[in-house]
């Protein structure tokens, strides 16, 4: 009994030492196992599937051209019957200026035309026939005077009358001949090509030009839509005093919708006219539509290091608006059953000799690879890896070549 009690007391004394020893032994075993197996390391599995390379960029919706609208004369705005964002038809009134003075000027000019027309009609209908009648009478008078002169000359030659009578008959015949000539000239001036007709026609032409000018200025008091489209800017209100040359509205005419984007110049070799793209707006990210690359600017923006690209949108959705910001994924290449690895797993990605840490028999082995297409966080591997290989998931992991690792969280490339 005494021995048993002594043994229990000894066990109580050494219990703490035994627990410490067991703990130290377990920790040593655990550390040794970790050193032998290596640290837990996230890996990604290499997959094989169809792969599409895209170039992603941001841009905006744009019509092929825009029309800046303004007035052609100085005036005060009377009415603006349209609002920004409104769809308008061709020839629809957009801006109306105060036009009372212009209307009065147009009426006055029309009256001047009517007066000139009346004068020309009077010349043709009254003066010309009167001149012709006067000329005929003058012709009769001249013929009478000529016959009288002939008789007088015969009588003078026979001695029946004196020199004074002959002189008087001669003078009368000369007067009649002069009057005939004058009436002939007057008749000629009233006919086509004559001076009076030319003056009347010129006066009418001037009056008509003045009337057309007045009507044009009256038309300038109203700004009409040159084509159907959408009003994307309005910088005028009723009561504003406006001047010619100032842009008051901007119209986006109906027509082909385009997407304009700036692409990093390093992707220039991948772009070709005719490539398709998927487009989405920030406001409607789930509603994508198709576009086609139609233009690549031959120049490079040196300040931004980018190239302007335009894409045609054959069937724009109803929600598309002018200058709307959009995201564009241009499909530049496609591979069938490509071997893919995550981009973040590749070391020296942009160098001639990229490589990955491939897991082989529990060790991370540096493996050189040859890359092909790249897009959306994935790289095509042409040489160095096959499907179902495992690589360290990120190139940022500080793992030495051939170091032991324990793969965890097998991240499959998507």
UniProtKB/TrEMBL annotation:
GO terms for molecular function: transmembrane transporter activity. Coiled coil: none annotated. GO terms for cellular component: membrane; periplasmic space. Residues 259-331 form the CusB-like beta-barrel domain. It comes from the Bacteria. It is found in: Periplasm. The chain crosses the membrane at residues 18-37. Keywords: Coiled coil, Membrane, Periplasm, Signal, Transmembrane, Transmembrane helix. PANTHER family: EFFLUX SYSTEM COMPONENT YKNX-RELATED, UPF0194 MEMBRANE PROTEIN YBHG. Belongs to the membrane fusion protein (MFP) (TC 8.A.1) family. This is Efflux transporter periplasmic adaptor subunit.
